[in-house]
Specification:
single chain, about 325 residues, Rossmann fold, six-stranded mixed sheet, 12 helices, about 25% strand, elongated, binds adenosine-5'-triphosphate, binds magnesium ion
């Protein structure tokens, strides 16, 4: 039995008729009041998972319970509990922000005498009070995203699904949205299922992170746990001259495994080594570097360790793979 306001997913599969097995047997458990970050490159299966959990798509196999209700058998109950902001916000360019909120409040069955105050409260909350009477066609990408979040919140959902809420936003709008999501959890104990391609977002915002790649969960845990799994830090050397790269790479290779990096020359340190060992060796051997830097593991390192690719590289690969879908 799912805890109220939690999410329980077992063996979930979703295969598109003329497409790939977008979600390939995943298990997820999100506790009430938790922010779960679903991290993965383009085409990993994030949106498909969100669509199944929000009852927009039936699963091919497996079960999913949201707030204690089965997404197939209890669709209307699930829909009553959740708020959803999809990756492609469906806004009407000819309506104003306030129009959208009133309409949504009516659709969601907010009582007539409360619609006005709820709309005003949310407009303030997402910082759109001044723009409320402007048509959405004149909104920036960040304003549309914030309006979409407000619309998802109209009926005070206990569980919130946000599909890439900050993709394409500038750093300020992104931080503002993070604060809003953190506040919803802190003050209203809303459970949040959030997908993202940004490591930093998952790191800052999520209590727990699931990393999905090609329909499978390749790692799961708190950001700190995942990074600790990698354990060893990396050392990055910035060459003075481009032509020194090969020599620096060869020299550093004695201290750990080389890491793919276009900007600098990097290795994942072998156990027991510290930065001063490297600095000393670099000095003694007259290796010419502009800078040497020690870095703690990031979630990208976790992704690299689990899949053999970097998150960025994986996204590019997925794009070139698109035309070569398996026949159904
Ligand atoms: N309606 C569809 N019909 C066929 N295949 C689809 C459909 N929607 C998605 N796919 C495929 O399913 C896979 C997963 O897609 P999905 O949209 O779930 O990925 P995503 O992780 O949300 O990616 P992004 O970060 O680009 O939004 C991709 O290979 C995609 O091409
Ligand atoms: Mg998506």
């Amino acid at each position: 039995m799912t805890e109220k306001n939690g999410i329980e997913v077992e063996g979930l599969v979703r295969e598109y008729k003329k497409g790939p097995r977008a979600v390939d047997g995943i298990d997820i458990s999100v506790a009430p009041g938790e922010i779960y970050g679903f991290l993965g490159p383009n085409g990993a299966g994030k949106s498909t998972t969100v669509h199944v959990l929000t009852t927009l798509l039936p699963p091919t196999a497996g079960t999913a319970r949201v707030g204690g209700y089965d997404v197939i058998k209890d669709g209307p109950k699930v829909r009553g509990l959740i708020g959803v902001a999809l990756q492609e916000a469906a806004l009407d360019p000819l309506l104003t922000g306030r129009d959208h909120l009133r309409l949504q409040a009516t659709l969601q069955g907010v009582r007539k005498n409360q619609r006005h105050s709820r709309a005003e409260e949310l407009l303030h909350r997402v910082g759109l009070a001044d723009a409320a009477d402007r048509k959405v066609s004149g909104y920036s990408g960040g304003m549309k995203r914030r309006l979409d979040l407000a619309l998802a919140l109209v009926h005070s959902p206990r569980i919130l699904f946000l599909d890439e809420p900050t993709t394409g936003l500038d750093p300020q709008s992104r931080t503002a949205l993070w604060e809003e999501v953190a506040l919803l959890r802190r003050e209203d104990r809303v459970t949040v299922f959030l997908t993202t391609q940004y490591l930093e977002e998952a790191d800052v915002l999520a209590d727990r992170v699931g990393i999905i790649d090609q329909g499978k969960i390749v790692a799961e845990g708190t950001p700190a746990e995942l990074k600790a799994e990698i354990g060893r830090p990396s050392v990055h050397a910035i060459p003075h001259r481009e032509e020194d790269r090969p020599r620096i790479a060869e020299f550093l290779a004695q201290f750990g495994e080389p890491l793919a990096s276009s900007r600098d020359v990097a290795v994942r340190l072998r156990d027991g080594l510290v930065l001063t060992d490297i600095v000393r060796a670099v000095d003694q051997n007259g290796i010419d570097v502009a800078d040497l830097e020690l870095r703690a593991p990031t979630l990208d390192d976790v992704f690299l360790a689990k899949t053999g690719r970097t998150l960025e590289g994986a996204a590019e690969e997925a794009e070139t793979e698109q035309p070569a879908m398996r026949p159904a």
